[in-house]
Amino acid sequence: MQHRQDGANQEVAAAKAGISVRSGRRIEKTGAPRTQPQRDWRTREDPLEAVWDTELVVLLEREPSLTGTTLLEYLEEHYPGHYDQRVLRTLQRRVKQWRALNGPDRDVIFRQKAAIAQQGFSDFTHPDSPITIQGEPFSHLLYQFRLAYSGWRSVTVVQGGESYAALACGLQRALRQAGGSPIEHRTDSLSAARNNRQNVWTDAYGELCAHYGMAPTRNNPGESHENGVVECANGSLKRRLSQQLKLRGHADFEEVEAYQAFVDQVVAKLNRRSHSRFAEEKQDLQPLPGQDAADYQSLSIKVTRSATIEVRRVVYTVPSRLIGERVQVRLHHDRLVLLVGQHPALTLSRVYPKPGEDRARSINYRHVIRSLASKPQAFRHSQLRDDLLPDDNYRALWKLADQHLEAREACKWMVTVLRLAFEYDDEEALGRDLLNDVRAGKFASITEIQGRYLTSQTPAPGAAAPQHDLVSYDELLSSITGGDCKQANPAAEVQP
């Protein structure tokens, strides 16, 4: 009536009131809405009248957790043909009502008042939206840290599983961003933090918490609500990320760092809600120590004669100068740092086996190409042959070379191309140009390739042009044109 009194027509007034136009006219005419009288009788026969009080209630009193579906199965077994799925909803409602009136007490959650700077929570979660890096699927987790009092959060993109390295990396990054540490750090039953068989904290995690003055705590097994500060935040995070990716128009990034920056922007918007409380909490956080704790696991591995190491079921090539050395490997979630003694020797991107696979390889032809150039016939039957080829263009080149050249010559040609790619500034351009030539019917000789790519690079003004050593190429060329090269035993060249 108020909308009509304000001058709205019947249709508009009815829409604002959430009623039909017909009801609006009736109310305007009579002055009052139509009401239905309360009734206390059934409009249809109770399908459970014969068994509810005498049998089903007895079963529920004995075992209150019985479900409506289970009770229907009981009726179907004891009264064949009398009860079917049509009574299931009625039975479920009746059971629900019985529990509310007569059932046992249920657990009560006593929501806690968070103390300022007291607790920080950690958890891992899988993103809902698939991410690609340069078009390739990117398998990862999101590590989230959240302060209980303010709700401030930090999110780190981590690779692999819920490892100690991932936990330590994400946690330390969060503490640096927060500018301090809480008194307690809580997780669920993360194997990265706790030896669940022995029910003790791992040494590495205990040392990490001690480094920042935090007491390690965890929620009781199976009680995820005790970690609700971060569990609930996982849902809001993933929803916001999904929405921002849709707004962005695609989920592809040039590099992992760009994706992390995107996540940081999303998290910064979420943290605006807790800005004032975080500013208050930040003042009471414990000061950080002068340096970070170790966020890696240390391994000692001997480099094989194939210039490889194996870490967590993944084979990596390393420079051949390291053959026979026992190197110390610092295993981070995203990289491997190799040290000889106390001196850093090499950093490798960490690789993980694909889903459904037990093993993987990370092969860089640059590590072994000098040795391979001295015995190119080892290439054909090398266990790492396909992995030595840096991209699809080079794999296509090898296929064509193997088809159009004599077997020995094909190996020498391909190895020489790889050696040129090693020396040439633009590996991708070299492979693309050579493949275009081959597809056009021009199979350039080694001499032609040398002349084209080793002399075409223009040095920067004022810089001396590097002088390439052509001796190895001349040796290969002479072997192709008539020289002799020993046939290596492929099985002895590379270990699996």
Write up what this structure looks like.
With 496 residues, this protein is α/β, with parallel strands linked by helices. It folds into 5 domains: 1-34, no CATH class; 52-102; 119-282, Nucleotidyltransferase, domain 5; 297-362, no CATH class; 368-457 and 467-493, no CATH class. It is 41% helix and 15% strand. It has 19 helices and 17 strands. It has helices spanning 2-5, 10-17, 21-30, 52-62, 68-78, 88-102, 164-178, 203-211, 228-248, 256-271, 275-282, 369-374, 385-388, 392-404, 407-423, 427-439, 446-453, 471-480, 490-493; strands spanning 119-125, 132-133, 136-137, 141-147, 153-158, 184-187, 194-195, 200-201, 215-218, 252-253, 297-302, 308-311, 314-317, 326-331, 335-340, 343-349, 360-362. It has a 5-stranded mixed β-sheet with strand order 5-4-1-6-9, with helices on both faces. A hairpin with a 2-residue loop joins strand 15 and strand 16. Helix 14 runs antiparallel to helix 15 (407-423) and helix 15 runs parallel beside helix 17. The protein is elongated. It starts with a helix and ends with a helix.
DSSP strand content: 5-15%
Task: Provide the CATH top-level class of the largest domain.
Answer: Alpha Beta
How widely separated are the two ends?
85 Å
Side-by-side strand order of the widest sheet: 5-4-1-6-9
Mean pLDDT: 85
Structural Rg: 35 Å
> Would you identify the regions where 5 or more consecutive residues have pLDDT less than 50?
456-473, 476-496
* CATH-defined fold name of the largest domain: Nucleotidyltransferase, domain 5
Task: Profile the largest sheet.
Answer: 5 strands, mixed
* Overall number of strands: 17
* General form: elongated
The protein's oligomeric status is: single chain
Please tell me the CATH architecture of the largest domain by its name: 2-Layer Sandwich
